[in-house]
Amino acid sequence: MSAAAAAPLTRRALLRAAFTAAVLAGTGAALAPVLRARRPRQTLTPAPLAEEETYRGRHIAVDAAGVRIDGRPLHVMRRADGSYLSDINHFQSYPTPLELARAAVDELGTTQLAFAAPHHG
Fold first, then answer.
1. Does the predicted TM-score (pTM) go above 0.85?
2. Measured between alpha carbons, how far is residue 97 from residues 1, 14, 17, 18 in Å?
3. Less packed terminus of the chain by CB within 10 Å, N or C?
């Protein structure tokens, strides 16, 4: 029989084992999100928007490229809560891009949208 096998469990050995377990648990908790992110996720993506309609004599098209009124692009922004707002009215948001386009037509009346200005490079 060896001396190491018969040695009683000391306070130092117990604290060392507890500290090692705590370090391993903390490392596992810190790495869990990283390891989960590496797994391919199966997500449900909504079908791409593709809606067209004539509203008050104006042609509205909503698709993956954006919102267009009579072929002219309407700048649309998505808010953090999932609603939409546009350059036409920054003060009210709408649940869908189509409803936003209808409200823009109401606001524009007979006025045409200006073509988008080129971005400065």
1. no
2. 80, 63, 59, 57
3. C
